[in-house]
Structures are given as C-alpha cells and as structure tokens.
Specification:
The protein is of the alpha/beta class. The chain is built from 11 helices and 12 strands. It has one domain (23-73, 119-142, 169-368): TIM Barrel, CATH 3.20.20.210. It has a 7-stranded parallel beta sheet with strand order 1-6-8-9-10-11-12. The two termini are 34 Å apart. One of its GO terms (biological process) is methylation. It comes from Virgibacillus massiliensis. InterPro entries: Met_Synth_C/arc (IPR002629), UROD/MetE-like_sf (IPR038071). Keywords: Methyltransferase, Transferase.
Length: 370
C-alpha cells in the first residue's frame, strides 16, 4: 500500500467528466463506420482532439482534467464490454427516458467476468495522463460495478443468478483499480445510475416486478462498491457520481435522496459524491444530515449540463449556503449535475455554451471558497 498522502480532489470547482464531441470526431466515426478510415486513423484524430480538450479545460480553470470520454459512444457500455466475459448485443428497444428513447444497445455476461491488462481504457488513460502533465490531475471515469449488475443480462450457463456474479465482479474491479493506479491514476470516478431505481415509488415497484427486494438490492449495491474499492492505495481518491439519467438533455428518473440517504451518505466508503441538485427532481439538502464523516466531500451539482441558460450565481451561492447548514463548507464542492455528453450524441447546447457553464462553475467556486 502507498504511503498516506493528502488527496488533491475533488476540487471546489469540479466536473463530472464528459464533454460534447467535436464535429471532427463525429465525422471520423462516420468515416470509420463506412471504412473510409482505419482504427489507427480514427485514434489519431481522437488524440488530437483530446489534446485540444485538455488545454481548453486548463484554460477554463479546471484542476481535474478528463479526456471528455471522446473515445466512447456510451458512458458505461464501452468500459463494461471491455471486460472479459461481457459482450454487446442489440436489444429489442432502447432505454426509455422522459420523452425520448435511446438507441439500442445492451450487454450480457457470457463467461466468467474478469479484468485484463489489455483493456483499452488503460491505454486511453496513459495518453491522458501524459497530456495533462504535472500541474493538473488526470481524472479517469468508469461505470460503477453496479452497472453490470443492473444492466447486463446474465447467461444461465455461466452464472445461475446475480449473486453468483458478485465475487468475480468485485475481483474484476479490484484488478481494474490497481491497474489504473499503476498507470498513474490518482483520481478515479465511478459513475452509477443504479441508485436512481430506489429514489421513487415507481422505481421501487419496477424493481419488485423484476423480482428484487429494493432494500436487499440497495444493500447489495452498497456492499459491492465498498468491497470493490477496499484495497485501493491510500493516495488514490475514488469518488462516485450518482445520476438520474442524462441522454440528449432528457432524464431517466426522479426522486429525492431521502430513500437512500442513510446508505449513500452514511454507508459508502468513497471519498466524494457527485450529486444532482439542479432542479426539483432531486429534492432538498436534508439527506446530507446523514453524512457521518468529516473526510467525505459532497460535490453539489447545482449547475445543469442539460441546457444553455446560466444559473443566477447568487441563487447558486444561496443553495450552497443552505447545504452548509447540514455539513461544513469545507466538505462541499460545486460542479455541473452531470456530464455534457453521457452518450456521443451529447446534450442540447453548443460547445461555447458548454464552456460558459464550466467557467460559471469555476468562478462561483472561487467566490465561495476563496
């Protein structure tokens, strides 16, 4: 285990990770699909655009720098499909969001789940790490292990049920976390939409219809996270982003954190939580009273990534002050509520509007935590 050192993130003005794909990447993907360019040529284009993105993030005042998830089509499927024993398939329908359905894509477990040092995300991180340099922190985002549990079809000839997958899944993520650490990663974020199913009566009823007991499943999700990160090196920070869905400026679910507050604020061993608080769908700050650690940072997603209009900075500051009545200012941070492009289609705003949002977050954070 590494020597205990001060962890440098999350930062007071932070972000979730994904950015709108530039037109050059979108065009290159089309060219690759039609075999006009090779994988190598596509990657070279992605490299160039990621280097540009790194510099834009620095210029905007961010300390944590990502690759914008520019090499991915989806925030979670690309990573999960890279695991041993997991493959992509085309389902009958996409996921139903509020007013829109996603394109069709899903995953299934076809063999024993494991992590390989050949996982493409390791090479992607190494490129980012080198591009970021020593004055900023390269942040890697991956889906939480819960996403395989709740999104993957389980082949019965491999595992009889979800419970049988869990030991291999935990081992897989422990290997992945160590591999990213060995590649230089000190800031890892787990993205997780599984918690959204527990937030509303409708979500809980849907779980029951699928044969799950919501309380038992919530405990499984908590345990899988904690065991997956239990062996992380002391100087590696791991945060979690809890999301209600983000597809082309549409959401998937609603509900406050009340139903999960004791579990996520008092039962998860992560170093920080990125939380959606950008509209009434997320409820109030009262659940923050369950935070029982002075080293847990809560990143308030008070600035929406879904729309271009900039929030009133005074109102954002007022809401931060309200949250600070439950936990100290020193444990609070600010970010957009989600990324700008959880899938390659992206949200309904322009790149310039996106950067205005980022600068807005940074400027407000500088005023609040100066």
């Amino acid at each position: 285990m590494a020597t205990k050192v001060e962890k440098k993130a999350p930062f007071k003005g932070d972000h979730v990770g994904s950015f709108l794909r530039p037109d050059r990447i979108k065009q290159a993907r089309i060219q690759k699909a039609s075999r006009e360019i090779t994988n190598e040529q596509l990657r070279a284009i992605e490299d160039t655009e990621i280097i540009k993105l790194v510099e834009k993030q620095k210029k905007a005042g961010l300390k944590a720098i990502t690759d914008g998830e520019f090499r991915r089509a989806w925030w979670h499927f690309d990573f999960l499909e890279g695991l041993i024993g997991v493959e992509e398939f085309v389902p009958e329908a996409g996921l139903q969001f509020s007013g829109i359905q996603t394109k069709k894509r899903a995953i299934r477990v076809t063999g024993e789940v494991d992590f390989s040092e050949n996982h493409p995300f390791l090479a992607d991180y190494k490129f980012l790490h080198e591009a970021v340099g020593d004055q900023h922190v390269a942040k890697q985002t991956i889906p939480s292990p819960n996403m395989l549990l709740v999104r993957a079809d389980i082949e019965t000839n491999v595992y009889e049920n979800m419970e049988q997958v869990i030991p291999d899944l935990i081992n897989t993520y422990q290997k992945a976390i160590q591999a990213f650490y060995d590649a230089g990663c000190r800031y890892l974020q787990l993205d997780d939409t599984s918690w959204s199913s527990f937030l509303s009566d409708e979500g809980r009823e849907s779980l029951r219809e699928k044969g799950f007991d919501p309380e038992q499943l919530m405990e499984v999700c908590r345990s899988v996270i904690n065991e997956s990160i239990a062996e992380r090196p002391n100087d590696m920070l791991i945060t979690m982003h809890i999301c209600r869905g983000n597809y082309r400026s549409h959401y998937f679910s609603t509900g406050s954190y009340d139903a999960v507050s004791e579990t996520i604020f008092g039962g998860l061993d992560v170093d920080g939580l990125f939380l959606e608080f950008d509209d009434d769908r997320s409820g109030g700050f009262e659940p923050l009273s369950y935070v029982n650690r002075n080293d847990l940072h809560v990143v308030l997603g008070l600035v929406t990534s879904k729309f271009a209009e900039l929030e009133d900075p005074n109102l954002v500051k007022k809401r931060i002050a309200e949250a600070a009545t439950y936990i100290p200012y020193g444990q609070l941070c600010l970010s957009p509520q989600c990324g700008f492009a959880s899938t390659e289609e992206g949200n309904n705003l322009t790149e310039e509007e996106q950067w205005k949002k980022i600068r807005h977050v940074v400027e407000i954070a500088e005023d609040v935590w100066q």
